[in-house]
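> example.struct
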């Protein structure tokens, strides 16, 4: 095999941070090359250098494509060279149709200034077929699930005759079936000679599809492992990423569980726009003081809908049901009521719902718990900075202290800030919706420690997760949901993947 891409001695600095320090990367023709590393290790930055997001001159080092030196001044230069990047945050324009998105900036024209809509639609249909989508090209892209939008992004790349496809955490927001589909597509594209670079925190998917793995740590390339000589050892990758062995993936815990604090009864919610479509159907659950309770279910089971609707009716149309706190009914008509009742909800879509990206880390961390750092309703800046720094250090958010702009953090570190924000509020009930999605293995452990500490201090935790090992490793009790109903409840010592999976697929007779 010959080398398609060689990056030599790449160094990229931001004010106060060396994001990449003399990085070497070699990618062979036709391979799937994975890039792994902790949050903030430099993965996205390296790919932004490669694709011209950071133009030539903004970094030092060389990029060679098929032996020829490249100096891209922007993304359109790298596209001309056959490189396409699909960013961690999807970049489609929601208001435009599927076809318009695919040919945005690369319009099919009939003479100057005239877009050939007929040809646009037929060509769009053709590339959509290549990625296995049977979508109507004229449908608005916002009507598609995240998984399908991801495929539209790939279709867009294919429409530009891509040679090297870069995917930055493409599966972090996808369910299992969608992830499988996407990984299958990568393997198919590989058969067609397309080389890809895949950034992922999921060891399982990397060892499944990648031919080699380069591990980054603190801006340095640690090593490149080949999978052709057999399976890469997951432990070796983890050691490269975190710089030490990680024996335990879940911290030890001695649960101290008290009386029932929160109870949800007969919870019933309809879809916000589709009249009469029931998304949560008579659900009931209880959570005790100091207890970590899991909520298992497949995509569409209604877990997020249940959580969001309990959190001050922030989803759907309320039909029926009551929330009790300490045995008394509480009326949660809006988010304000929910927060006043001591409930916090960390959403799964953190980019949309969680952060003020142009404010600093300190303000984002303390926003939901300003009373903790105020005296007579006036914020005490010194106390605020100290408290925020404690939380930042505890969660190992990689930054220059707490005054850095949150939007400059790496994707995973932004997620840690959202989590930290709600933990800082010291809620009585903390609802976590997929809290470790996009978070590296080392940082996951830190988050588990903090969640356990909150529980040990007496908080109730409801953990929604699609990763069964995470539920089994963390929870005292797990409820399973299917088609909007709670289908069962399993205590920790009786819980295993099979039992849960059975309950998660128990449909109505
Ligand atoms: N625009 C920016 N301004 C300042 N610092 C930045 C900027 N972009 C990235 N950084 C810093 O560079 C480092 C590497 O960030 P990068 O986004 O490449 O990490 P990553 O490996 O992709 O992490 P993740 O797994 O969390 O996505 C981080 O310390 C980050 O804070
Ligand atoms: Mg990243």
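> example.seq
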């Amino acid at each position: 095999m010959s080398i398609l891409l060689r990056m030599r001695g790449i160094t990229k600095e931001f004010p106060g941070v060396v994001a990449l320090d003399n990085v070497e990367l070699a990618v062979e023709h036709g391979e799937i090359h994975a890039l792994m590393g902790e949050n903030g290790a430099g993965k996205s930055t390296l790919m932004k250098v490669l694709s011209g997001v950071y133009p030539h001159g903004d970094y030092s080092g060389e990029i060679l494509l098929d032996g020829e030196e490249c100096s891209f001044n922007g993304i359109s230069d790298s596209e001309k060279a056959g490189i396409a990047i699909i960013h961690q945050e999807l970049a489609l324009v929601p208001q435009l149709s599927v076809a318009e998105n695919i040919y945005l900036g690369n319009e099919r024209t009939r003479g100057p200034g005239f877009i050939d809509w007929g040809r646009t639609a037929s060509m769009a249909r053709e590339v959509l077929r290549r990625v296995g989508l049977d979508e109507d090209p004229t449908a608005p892209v916002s009507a598609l699930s995240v998984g399908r939008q991801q495929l539209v992004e790939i279709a867009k790349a294919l429409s530009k005759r891509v040679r090297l496809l870069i995917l930055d955490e493409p599966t972090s927001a996808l369910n299992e079936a969608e992830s499988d589909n996407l990984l299958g597509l990568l393997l198919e594209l590989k058969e067609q000679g397309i080389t890809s670079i895949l950034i992922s925190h999921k060891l399982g998917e990397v060892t499944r599809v990648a031919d080699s793995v380069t591990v980054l740590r603190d801006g340095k390339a640690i090593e490149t492992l080949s999978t052709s000589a057999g399976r890469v050892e997951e432990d070796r990758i983890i050691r490269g990423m975190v710089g030490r062995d990680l024996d335990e993936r879940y911290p030890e815990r001695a649960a101290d569980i008290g009386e029932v604090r929160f109870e949800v009864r007969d919870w019933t919610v309809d879809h916000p726009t589709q009249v009469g479509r029931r998304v949560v159907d008579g659900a009931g659950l209880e959570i005790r003081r100091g207890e970590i309770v899991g909520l298992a279910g497949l995509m569409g089971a209604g877990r997020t809908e249940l959580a969001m609707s309990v959190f001050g009716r922030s989803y759907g149309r309320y039909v029926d049901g009551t929330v009790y706190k300490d045995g008394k009914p509480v009326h949660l008509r809006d988010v304000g009521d929910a927060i006043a009742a001591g409930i916090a909800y960390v959403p799964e879509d953190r980019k949309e719902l969680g952060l003020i990206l142009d404010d600093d880390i300190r303000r984002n961390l303390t926003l939901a718990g300003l009373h903790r750092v105020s005296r007579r309703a006036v914020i005490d800046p010194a106390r605020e900075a100290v408290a925020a720094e404690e939380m930042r250090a505890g969660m190992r958010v990689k930054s220059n202290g707490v005054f850095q702009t949150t939007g400059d953090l790496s994707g995973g570190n932004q997620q840690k800030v959202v989590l930290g924000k709600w933990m800082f509020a010291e809620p009585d009930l903390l609802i976590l919706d997929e809290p470790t999605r996009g978070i590296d293995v080392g940082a996951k452990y830190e988050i588990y420690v903090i969640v356990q500490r909150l529980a040990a201090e007496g908080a109730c935790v409801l953990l929604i997760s699609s990763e069964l090992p995470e539920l089994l490793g963390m929870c005292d009790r797990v409820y399973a949901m299917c088609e909007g109903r709670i289908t069962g409840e399993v205590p920790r010592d009786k819980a295993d993947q099979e039992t849960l999976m059975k309950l998660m697929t128990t449909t109505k007779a």
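> remarks
The pocket of adenosine-5'-triphosphate (ligand 1) is lined by residues 14, 17, 19, 37, 39-45, 88, 398-399, 408-413 (CB under 6 Å).
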